[in-house]
Amino acid sequence: MDKLRAITIFRRVIELGSFKAAAEDMRLSKAAISKNINELEVYLKSPLINRTTRRMHITENGQRYYDHVRTILDELSHADLSIIESSHQLSGLIKVCVPMSLGILKLNPAICEFMQFHPEISIEVILNDHYVDLIEQGLDVSIRGGGALQNSSLKSRKLLDMKRVLCASPKYIEQAGQLLSLDELNQHNSLIYSLSSSPRHWVFRKQKEKKAIDLAPGSYVVNNGLALKQAVIAGLGITLTPEIFVDRELKSGELVRLLPEWQAESHALYAIYPYHKEQSQKVRTFIDFLIDYFAQ
């Protein structure tokens, strides 16, 4: 048994969730994957994965072994990269997934600037507002909002906090009347971003006071931030959106901030990456650049 090969295969099976996916990812036959896992279990004298015809489940010993070998394999990768990358200019491909609206408005200009500093690096940008499995899709980085990570094979670094604002167009306010309190929100037409973690549940704070509003169905629901911005500018209603989307329109008066004394709960934007990619200098350099870019 080639032990290093076997534990590498074991790791990919666990991270991808199936023998078939690992076989496709590593360009091996499913039989070769099974053979290596079986030999590893015989060597360790313990089952690592329980499999049925439909599903597989990692055993308690399997989880413990995965946690150890993942660290070992990452250290080996780091040792290799420390030598390879120390004597070479940064180069190669970075595959990154970004939210469509934020990607077009803010992230893609940052990515283009990064490429000017590192002309030997190629970047494949995937614009997608939906959750994407980084490991399954072979991605290096995903930029998205969120909180604590549920997947232990992923890590994250915060890029920026995104303050959200309640806003509408002057045209809408003239027609529907001024919003005087949060309690009046359901008397107005709310424009909803459907991919939010809580599309119809908006939470606001004013000093120590907290108020949650459950919105009645509005006339416009959309899964894209740019489309939502166009709808609020057109005067269709009131929306809650990241300030970074509408900062220019708020300054020009095309949109009006409503109830500024109430602060909506902020969202944060993160760079998410597979645990083993932390050892890649080009990935680290890319994320460091984005953090510095937004800090400015």
SSE topology sketch:
Elements lengths: L2 H14 L2 H8 L3 H15 L4 E3 L4 E3 L1 H25 L7 E7 L1 H18 L3 E7 L6 H4 L3 E5 L8 E9 L1 E5 L1 H7 L13 E4 L7 E6 L2 E6 L5 E3 L2 H9 L4 E5 H10 L3 E2 L5 E2 L2 E8 L6 H15 L1
Parallel strand pairs: 3-4, 3-5, 8-11, 8-12
Antiparallel strand pairs: 1-2, 5-15, 6-15, 7-12, 7-13, 9-10, 9-14
Helix pairs in contact: 1-2, 1-3, 1-4, 2-3, 5-10
What does it look like?
Keywords: DNA-binding, Transcription, Transcription regulation. Residues 1-59 form the HTH lysR-type domain. Belongs to the LysR transcriptional regulatory family. GO terms for molecular function: DNA-binding transcription factor activity; sequence-specific DNA binding. This is HTH lysR-type domain-containing protein. The protein has 3 domains: 3-85, Arc Repressor Mutant, subunit A (Orthogonal Bundle); 90-159 and 268-295, 3-Layer(aba) Sandwich (D-Maltodextrin-Binding Protein, domain 2); 164-265, D-Maltodextrin-Binding Protein, domain 2. The chain is 42% helix and 25% strand. The strands form 4 sheets. It has a 5-stranded mixed beta sheet with strand order 4-3-5-15-6, with helices on one face. A 5-stranded mixed beta sheet has the order 11-8-12-7-13. Strands 10-9-14 form a 3-stranded antiparallel beta sheet, with no helix packed on it. The mean pLDDT is 88. Helix 5 links the parallel strand 3 and strand 4 (121-127). It is an alpha/beta fold. The protein contains 10 helices and 15 strands.
